[in-house]
Write a structure and sequence with these properties.
The strands form 2 sheets. Strands 6-5-4-7-8-11-10 form a 7-stranded mixed sheet, with helices on both faces. About 35% of the residues are buried. It has about 290 residues and is an alpha/beta fold. Helix content is about 35%, strand content about 30%. It has one domain: Vaccinia Virus protein VP39 (Rossmann fold), CATH 3.40.50. The chain contains 11 helices and 11 strands.
């Protein structure tokens, strides 16, 4: 045990989980949140999200080709938005960490007044060039938004990147209307994949990923930020087989080889789309 203070519950009881990229990842023994000890400064973190993050040859960070998977993401995002529409009657949306803007584009096409924000200048440039909606390069903590200005705020694969999750959640609480909806997607550090793979779990990716939540530990953070967790479910994304093979080459080379052989026998198989559990979860929360 060490005396590192947990950023979520302030407990000083933690244990070392693993060391990646020269950084210690520890887990709080009270709320079970895992986090990077000695988080880099803000400028260092923002510098990660350049054009290379979205077109990366480095498998330990970013995407090999974000634009390539946009149509697969469109199917996934459309299903998510339909569920959000059943939960939230309002139509003012903010997508935090919007990347190149696809989710905002889909929401706009379905009648939402949708805004996307990201710290990546490259991502917002791509969003403005290819999609409809309002986009801005901004940090949520310093952006000048009025209180109670959104009915839904989404954070897909974002909260694990931020150095101050509680502050971010509290800021979101200020921006949401009464009974506003927050939707978070993040890797499930309490899931079976994480438990089986332990230090080899591919989502342990500092300095890109700084916090690692389970549904239980995220609920602690949400409660401290004036939210009630309504529900959560396993994240399922639509992916083509050839992209699945690329991802499995990093985590399960044997299965990647099997799928690759199947694709070589039947080239049509490689372009099929499958609904794949990703090892992440989707959480739906409402202001209390």
């Amino acid at each position: 045990m060490s005396t590192i203070s947990c950023p979520i519950c302030q407990s000083v009881q933690s244990r070392l989980l693993c060391r990646k990229q020269g950084m210690d990842i520890v887990q709080c023994q009270q709320c079970k949140t895992a986090f990077v000890h000695d988080i880099p400064d803000g400028k260092t973190l923002e510098s990660l999200y350049s054009e290379q993050y979205f077109k990366s040859d480095e498998p330990s960070i970013g995407y090999r080709d974000y634009a390539r998977i946009s149509e697969q993401k469109r199917l996934t995002f459309t299903k998510r938005l339909k569920k959000i529409e059943r939960l939230c009657p309002g139509r003012r949306l903010l997508d935090v960490g919007c990347a190149t803007g696809l989710f905002v584009d889909i929401a706009t096409s379905r009648g939402w007044t949708a805004t996307g924000m990201d710290v990546s200048e490259f991502a917002i440039k791509e969003a403005n060039a290819h999609y409809t909606g309002m986009f801005m390069v901004a940090d949520l903590m310093t952006a000048d938004f009025p209180t109670n200005s959104y009915d839904t705020i989404t954070m897909f694969d974002v909260i694990e990147h931020v150095p101050q999750p509680l502050e971010v959640l509290s800021r979101i609480a200020d921006l949401l209307s009464d009974q506003g909806l927050l939707v978070i997607e993040t890797p499930n550090a309490g899931g079976l994949m994480a438990k089986l793979m332990r230090h080899r779990w591919p989502y342990y990716r500092p300095p890109e990923h700084l916090f690692y939540f389970s549904p239980t530990s995220l609920q602690v953070a949400l409660k401290k930020s004036r939210f009630e967790l309504l529900s959560w479910n396993k994240s399922v994304k639509t992916m083509q087989v050839d992209y699945i093979i690329e991802m499995l080459q990093l985590t399960n080379p044997v299965l990647a080889h099997i799928l690759s052989r199947m694709s070589s026998i039947s080239p049509v198989f490689s372009t099929r789309s499958l609904n794949v559990p990703t090892g992440s979860f989707l959480a739906f929360a409402r202001l209390t």
